[in-house]
Amino acid sequence: MGCMKNLLSTLEPLLAKLPVTASVQLASGERIGPEQSAVQLIFRSPKALAALLDGQVGSLGAAIVEGWVDVKGQARDIMAAAAGLLQADPVQHRPTWLEQTVSKAKSLAMHTLSRDAEQIQFHYDLSDDFYALWLDPRRVYSCAYYQSADMTLAQAQEAKLDHICKKLRLQPGERFWDIGSGWGGLIFWAAENYGVQAHGITLSRNQYEYVQRLIAEKGLQGRVQVELRDYRQMDGVEPFDKIGSVGMFEHVGSANLPGYFQTIHGMLKPGGLALVHGITAGGVGNAELGAGMGDFISRYIFPGGELMHVSRVQHDMGQSGLEMVDTENLRPHYARTLWAWSDALEARMDEARAVLVAQYDAGRAERALRAYRLYLAGCAMAFERGWIALHQLLCSKPDGNLQTGVMKGAQSSYPFNREYIYR
């Protein structure tokens, strides 16, 4: 009885400080907080109480996925409560030398050819029909570009595809390589609107088969190609005029990032441009979000995923011999993109459940649905608050020719201003 009273006395001020009304129902049946609260946590097991008290929102999320805790409320309210539970800044961790050493060894072990294929298929091969419920019609599974405030998600995704193609200055007849081409949004846009020969690679079997069907349906054989291939296995392929890589370097791993950029350098013709678009860490030293949030993502959503600060990405890009010519932070655009995905999933939860149950047993389907609900809204919150960011980095491979370019003697095939992107 005394322990229960102590617990209640600890929980009451914790809930009172949250930015939304919240209540907790314990396994004993006792309840703390207003009955008609915006967020309700119903504990089936006492295991998760420690996570609640310690501000380990990732561990609390895992308890929700596993069914130890039920959560009721709107996604935005749930995330506001989660942020209020934090007891420390989730991006300010400074790793020790030992932590850095262990992290590098772990990264090397996680990113072999076979493990990367397994990890990509774990996420992207969950269910095409499930993703189709909340993505735009082109199934572009990366940050959109809200060129104007009134754009729909579908319009903003098309704007993003065009933004990339303009930055790369794609020209008819050029050979364009998309590393990690997803459901084909960028390679189809580039081929159909810019006249390039587009070559995509993916490790997802579902995405590969989907793109192959679209190539046939669109009659783009000979202009668009997709392969099940790792970026480290490009022997025998001629270099490309332009290269894009969207939502890819998060899967490469810290230990392999230098090799990733060396591959881009080797596969890019002199004078060519490459654009990498990916999620970057909000803090300089942290490889993942604190408070258990990084662990949650690794366990349920992106096994093997690693985040690096943009300064680290630029460092390894420069070490490879590529010259960074333009960097843009689209962090607020990704917050809005993720809220659009979250809202779409929230509106179609019953359909999403039916899709997953048709493919998996009911238990796995329910766990996946709970995980994705928390993942989409949680990532929206993280981008909104600046805990993580999204950068597009445009780089060139210097050709050494001082007699070409906009201004002779400058050794630059890249324009002297950004006007060409926004025309």
CATH class descriptor name of the largest domain:
Alpha Beta
The shape, in one word, is globular
Q: How many individual helices?
A: 18
How many β-strand stretches?
11
Structural class: alpha/beta
Distance between the amino and carboxyl termini: 70 Å
Report mean pLDDT, rounded to a whole number. Answer: 87
- CATH-assigned homologous superfamily of the largest domain: Vaccinia Virus protein VP39
The low-pLDDT segments are none
Strand % is 15-25%
Q: Within the CATH hierarchy, at the fold level, what is the topology of the largest domain?
A: Rossmann fold
Helical fraction: 40-55%
EC number: 2.1.1.-
InterPro entries: CFA/CMAS, CMAS, SAM-dependent_MTases_sf
GO molecular function: methyltransferase activity
Family: Belongs to the CFA/CMAS family.
